[in-house]
Design brief:
mainly alpha, about 0% strand
């Protein structure tokens, strides 16, 4: 039979895990489930800990989506499609993801432009064809459609001519 001490120990594990970055409910649940195997605690204890962490607002999947998208767009811009896939991988419900993206319209062209600008200097010494190929493959790996890729590369090429 688990005690309040066991719950507190489990919460302490969770606090430590949450110390480094925001986490989703699924991530915390998986982490705590691994801890319970060693101690032979029940899954109910994990549920209690999760509920307490949600009440303390230390786990909030809706806020995680917002934080994750902002972080990703600031450092490594990717397409909406790729971001949705990454969020699903983190265990975020599809409804939460769709809700966020419906309320926060971000221009895919602007994100692609931002992503490519960080690489453009490296590609500037290449021939026009090679520059297009490298730029296109870079943006396509980030999940942008070919139409967006073509528009963004043309836009950068036009700016450089002026």
């Amino acid at each position: 039979m688990e005690s309040d001490d066991d719950l507190q120990t489990l919460l302490n594990y969770a606090y430590f895990y949450l110390k480094f970055r925001r986490r989703t409910k699924k991530e915390v649940r998986d982490y705590l489930n691994k801890k319970t195997v060693k101690r032979h605690w029940s899954r109910d204890l994990v549920g209690q800990a999760i509920n307490q962490l949600e009440e303390q607002d230390l786990i909030n999947d809706k806020e995680f989506v917002k934080w994750f998208v902002e972080q990703r767009n600031a450092s490594k811009p990717k397409s909406r499609f790729v971001l949705k896939g990454e969020l699903l991988h983190f265990g975020i419900e599809k409804d939460l993801i769709d809700d966020y993206f419906s309320k926060h319209e971000e221009s895919e062209d602007e994100l692609a432009l931002k992503a490519l600008q960080s690489r453009w200097r490296r590609f500037s010494t290449l021939s026009k064809k090679e520059r297009f190929e490298k730029s296109a493959s870079f943006l396509i790996r980030r999940g942008f459609s070919f139409d967006i890729v073509r528009r963004v590369i043309n836009k950068i090429e036009e700016k450089k001519k002026k």
